[in-house]
Description:
Belongs to the pirin family. Residues 178-262 form the Pirin C-terminal domain. InterPro entries: Pirin, Pirin_C_dom, Pirin_N_dom, RmlC-like_jellyroll, RmlC_Cupin_sf. It comes from Kibdelosporangium philippinense. By secondary structure, this protein is mostly beta strands. The protein has a single domain (8-231), classed as Jelly Rolls. The protein has helices at 249-260, 264-267, and strands spanning 8-10, 13-16, 24-29, 40-50, 54-60, 63-71, 74-78, 83-86, 91-95, 100-106, 111-119, 130-134, 139-142, 145-154, 157-158, 167-180, 186-194, 196-198, 201-203, 208-212, 217-231, 239-241, 244-246. The strands form 4 sheets. Strands 1, 13, 14, 15, 16, 17, 18, 19, 20 and 21 form a 10-stranded antiparallel β-sheet that branches. A 7-stranded antiparallel β-sheet has the order 2-3-4-11-6-9-12, with no helix packed on it. Strands 5-10-7-8 form a 4-stranded antiparallel β-sheet, with no helix packed on it. 43% of the residues are buried. The mean pLDDT is 94. It binds manganese (II) ion. Manganese (II) ion binds at residues 58, 60, 65, 102, 243.
Amino acid sequence: MSNVTSPEFFEAREVPLGGVRGVKVDRVLPQRELPTLGAWCFLDQFGPGIAEMIVLPHPHIGLQTVTWPLAGEIRHRDSVGSDVVLRPGQLNLMTSGRGVAHSEVSLTGGVHALQLWVALPADATQIDPGFEHHAQLPNFRSEGIDALVFMGALGDVESHATTYTPLVGAQIDVTEGTIPLRPDFEYGVLVIDGSVRVADVELKPGPLLYLGTGRDEITLAGPARVVLLGGLPFPDDLVMWWNFVGRSHDEILAAREQWENQDTTRFGTVAGHGSDRIPAPVLPNLRLKPRKQPSRQQ
Ligand code: MN
């Protein structure tokens, strides 16, 4: 356990999502000093207790969307023809490849969900778009620990969800117990419910606790439900704007124009919404720059 990074808190910030209902979300990632956590590049927490969520068709490039509901039911439709109801304990994973569009609408009140994005590595940004619904996910269990592994691997328990870089996403119900980690991964923990003592600090719902790299295990003392995210530190500086993840201003500009021009060859069509869609915002009057990966102590 030498060369372990000191834990660091990253506070979530409240972000108004446009739209009719003016839903507010807590944005946990990205942060100025933490643009990515492994390949995880975006984390919004919706709710708890959102009465109605209507996210009309909108596009994505350069990423996978990972939708992880904690309460309530969400209907997902997309431009590869999916129409799926998602419930807690299940995973929706949509891979944009070169371009995809989707909508998400709540079917119940009381929605509480995590919306995460995973940045695709450069060699996967032009693949075909795809969608996976995982109704059954593998359990990692050890003394005091009962986890659902939704992406990647925790110990030797691995999700079937398709990943393009080594990473993990797991929901962990803990009384008190120890989980295996990979020293080459960086990790972060978000508390959903309860509170947990981890790495000599007390963590409650709200901030992300960044644990860095260099650990081969960690002990959690709850009781709590937490989400563990981790992965190999992502090598690329990313340009993130609206729903797009890219590597250059021009790449983002092209995607924006194609969405605004209703270019169905790139983004397809999400059935069932007529002409309703979310228009792209106006680009700022400057060239978008990549968020620089900070150099961290290893
Ligand atoms: Mn989306």
